[in-house]
Design goal:
Blueprint lengths: L7 E4 L2 E4 L8 E3 L1 E2 L7 E5 L9 H4 L4 E4 L10 E4 L5 E4 L17 E5 L4 E4 L22 H8 L6 E2 L13 E5 L2 H4 L11 E8 L2 E8 L4 E9 L8 E2 L2 E4 L15 E4 L2
């Protein structure tokens, strides 16, 4: 026969049980073979009897797996102590057959009774998580936001005319040979192109791909015609001033010493 292990601590009053328990602690109980549908006999190592409100209310959650179903008047006895009522968490009597064999049960001692901490299976919600995260619907607001997101960049093919790119999105060309066949570029260089659309108007931002610095250009479309490309501020690395041919009058550049 298994023996209970009583855990004590020395205090000014002598050896005392190691209570109160941490309220978050889960106490694993053994469901006794002598249990019936009306009396659940549990064994918990380290819990002395008789149970009292002094330390019982501070005990952690008690976990056990019954082998028989419950009656509406089922009680719980721990380590052979007086059997006390097993109630719903609100203090009302359990319905019969709420607890079934081989199903994990959690209870909490409170004021001379054990109160059931229900799980979803015991209240008929065992299928609540059957829908996978991938299959769960999304809200209208999320759908609208996704509809406005920028998609994966699209490669601009050879012989393309950038005047035809008025649909919002990201575009690019890293092929120098293809770039040489395109029209309406600010500079003949591999690039990324960001197109913004709003109220019939369009803004294109062209950024040249270069290891010598960052050069970007912008222009707008009014629904009929494109304006001219305007170079924005550009950033170069190094200790000398950039060649004037890289920009136009009025540009601002930022020099970062290497």
């Amino acid at each position: 026969m298994a023996k209970s292990i009583i855990m004590n601590v020395l205090t000014s009053s002598g050896y005392e049980p190691m209570y109160p328990f941490n309220p978050a602690l889960v106490l694993n109980a053994t469901f006794g073979e002598t249990s019936t549908t009306s009396v659940y006999n549990l064994t918990i190592n380290g819990v002395p009897v008789p149970l009292t409100n002094t330390f019982g209310n501070s005990m952690g959650i008690i976990a056990f797996v019954p082998t028989v179903t419950n009656e509406s008047t089922t009680t719980i006895s721990i380590n052979g102590d007086t059997a006390l009522p097993l109630l719903n968490n609100d203090g009302t009597n359990l319905l019969p057959n709420v607890l079934t064999p081989n199903t994990l049960v959690f209870v909490k001692y409170r004021n001379n009774a054990f109160h059931l901490l229900l799980d979803k299976g015991q209240i008929g919600l065992s299928n609540v998580d059957n829908t996978s995260d991938a299959d769960k619907p999304i809200s209208n607001s999320v759908t609208n936001a996704l509809n406005q997101k920028l998609n994966t960049p699209t490669e601009v093919p050879a012989n393309a005319n950038l005047n035809t790119y008025t649909t919002a999105g990201l575009y690019y060309s890293s092929n120098s040979a293809n770039v040489g066949t395109m029209t309406n570029l600010p500079v003949t260089s591999p690039f990324t192109l960001f197109v913004e659309g709003y109220g019939g108007a369009v803004t294109q931002t062209f950024t040249a791909i270069s290891t010598s610095g960052i050069q970007s250009y912008k222009r707008t479309y009014n629904g009929t015609n494109f304006g001219s490309w305007q170079q924005e501020a550009f950033i170069l690395s190094g200790t000398s001033d950039p060649a004037q041919s890289l920009g136009v009058n009025g540009n601002i550049y930022i020099k970062i010493d290497s």
